[in-house]
Specification:
The chain is mostly helical. Helices cover 81% and strands 0% of the residues.
Length: 257
């Protein structure tokens, strides 16, 4: 019981520290302060988990923590409305607190249904990270026109490939080589989607959201394809049709906002 309470206290501390750092970055948007906050965040997170978790065994979890922190900063810095900034800070802090809580609570004796819930939450965090990276790529294309689009294409492909691998490895414990061809495929397809969506007359937030949506659908289809059962097309056909209709409706609604 005491161990359980300690874990939750550490998660609350992680969320509190993250929230303070997010707000301080908004108030002091300096590049050196930004890098300093990243080192401070990393140090605090390691101090919170090192007694209960072997750091070398939780490399991907720590990478996810860092990327979730960076993702929140990216969205906060590219957002103009104060209310949305506060909501993003709260969301980012709660996300980091939840990741710390899961990292500390996930043991060999954790029930399977709890582990599956943890995995789903981590998947959503990786999707959040991918979305923020894609939004940042579009924002750079808007504000820094001197940056070549080819560099942004490569960044979009590499970042989504990283997030795809991080998600797939949670479902299939196989060597990295088995994913290579699929990572290349999803990277190339994401770069093509990045270019096509880039032609739409929307803001960078909307463009990043649309590409993330399409990338996630590709991610799911490839994940099902490489599984032992393969793709069960009957339920997936309904899923694809529903998403296609919803995607068109979203495009129509956004057009008139």
């Amino acid at each position: 019981m005491i161990r359980f309470i300690v874990f939750h206290i550490r998660a609350v501390l992680a969320a509190g520290v993250s929230a303070l750092l997010f707000e301080s970055i908004v108030r002091f948007p300096n590049q050196w302060y930004l890098f300093g906050s990243l080192f401070l965040f990393t140090g605090v997170m390691i101090l919170l988990i090192r007694r209960y978790v072997r750091v070398e065994m939780a490399v991907w979890d720590i990478i996810q923590l860092l990327l979730a922190y960076i993702a929140t900063i990216v969205l906060v810095l590219f957002t103009e409305w104060r209310t949305v900034i506060i909501l993003l800070e709260v969301l980012g802090a709660l996300t980091i607190g939840t990741l710390i809580d899961m990292l500390l609570s996930n043991t060999d004796t954790t029930p399977i249904y709890i582990k599956k819930a943890f995995r789903r939450i981590r998947v959503m965090v990786w999707v959040f990270v991918a979305a923020s990276l894609l939004i940042s790529a579009y924002a750079v294309s808007f504000f820094f026109v001197q940056v070549p689009l080819v560099a942004l294409f490569l960044f979009a492909g590499a970042s989504t490939a990283l997030c795809s691998y991080a998600i797939w490895r949670m479902y299939y414990q196989v060597p990295f080589g088995r994913f290579t061809i699929w990572l290349l495929i999803i990277a190339v397809m994401t770069m093509e989607l990045f270019w096509v969506i880039h032609l739409l007359p929307f803001g960078y937030m909307v463009l990043g959201f649309l590409v993330t949506w399409l990338w996630y659908m590709l991610l799911l289809l490839i994940r099902f394809h490489i599984s032992a059962e393969g793709i069960r097309w009957k339920p997936q056909r309904k899923f694809l049709i529903a998403n296609a209709i919803l995607f068109v409706l979203v495009l129509f609604v956004i057009r008139w906002i």
